[in-house]
Task: structure prediction
Amino acid sequence: MNYLVIGTGGVGGSIAGFLALAGREVTCIARGKHLEAIRKQRLHLKSDLKGDHFLPVKACTADSFDGKADVIFVCVKGYSIESIRDVLERAAKPDTLVIPILNVYGTGPRIGRMTPAVTVLDGCIYIVGFVSGEGEITQMGNIFRLVFGARPEQGITRERLEVIASDLRACGIKVDVSDDINRDTFIKWSFISAMACTGAYHDVPMGEVQKEGEVRDTFVGLSRESAEIGRRLGVVFPEDPVTYNLKVIDKLDPHSTASMQKDLARGHESEIQGMLFDMIDLGKKLNVPLQTYEKVAEKFRK
Result:
């Protein structure tokens, strides 16, 4: 199976690294000095799960990619979606499946509307991964879980999805084929929004969220408010969403931070629109009280 990973940051680089380590055919789309370093010294994967490796992966810019892929992972930030339209359309065959791995709810349908000739599923991922140097990806902790699935109207058999899932599992990635990807992507959005907004608001790593006190209370408040948004959207949670979010946060490496928090600290473009303000906008439409989200937003509106 031939894989293309668009966006070789912490998430995309970790996926590409695990695929390459298992001998799969994978090409990475990257840019700038990060791309130059991957080409020169190979992809450097520093993984708590797999160890330290320099991996010979193909790497190029989106403009220069001229092949075709069986599976395409979209791992760019939400604000870069429009920039990948051309490479998606060029790289996809009639039977290619695209799996977006973004943090913002509704990304799969959004990309699908942008590229109607391409089959775009939806997905989410639980991982702490980041670019730790030029050409270098660090995967931190023991969590690396990918969830993906098709929407009912797409008519894609579970067996077809399981073929991909089985191949990824053989590479050491925990994979769940979702029977309700709308639910599962909302659950991830709820979690990562609460995680990123708490970390950024208090300017702390996740170890502080794991302790009782004001920081954890912020995380719980955000989780409660986003869960209510989900309920009003018709999302049926398999367990109490606040309890679930706390279980996930408590398993993270205490030194970890969300990518939005890292980007804000460095003065880079960030996903704050999707993580914070899109959640507030949706909550307002559904008449959900958002005391905690508004508290966080006040800091960043300034």
